Amino acid sequence: MVASTADLSAPRPSTLRTLCGLLLALGGISLPLGHWLDELAGPGHVIVNELIYWALVVAVLCYVKGVERRPLTSVGLRRPSWKDGLWAVATGLLILVCLGLIYYVLFPALHWSESQQFSQLATIPYALQCLIVVRAAVSEELLFRGYAVERLQELSGSRLVAGALSCTVFTLDHVTYWGWHHILVAGSAGIILTVFYFWRRNLWASMLAHFIVDGAAFLLG
Prior knowledge:
- This protein is an all-alpha fold.
- 76% of the residues lie in helices and 0% in strands.
- It has one domain.
- α3 packs parallel to α6 (126-156) and α4 (82-110) runs antiparallel to α9 (183-200).
- 32% of the residues are buried.
């Protein structure tokens, strides 16, 4: 059975704690670390960048358990069912179809291209590309969906507000590297992933869907 909310029985943290948690989650992941650390300068830069993001993931999980004193189910980390897995695969494929239309139909019509960005990422060793894809699926779904969506909904009392705010930050977060035209790419993927999370309320399924998209885009090319 799909959960309609994260954890209605769990104690709610204070508004201040929730705001601090949101600042940690959304503020932390939105920092332009790749630019500051010159991520593409070499494997060592990539590793440092990735370690910082993993540290942020651990910090948010510790914040949920230690500061908010809430279970990890409050951010969607509950055991997935086989239906969650199947729908995650279907959602990942749906996003890939949407992105294919954007990249191969809309972008050429508008004379836009992201070939330079993809070429730069291709210079990273394949093993590190795999690390980036896994980390992106875990960190972005935990911070933008699992934590931000749940806490924003608690604060606002509205799924629409929570989904819109988290999706907006998610979309703008990708502009630093990819450019403003990437709003179409990140925005469409973000909307589908957000709707999927609201539907299944299972963070593992969201991570799988995200991994399928990034894996197909960056590891199979």
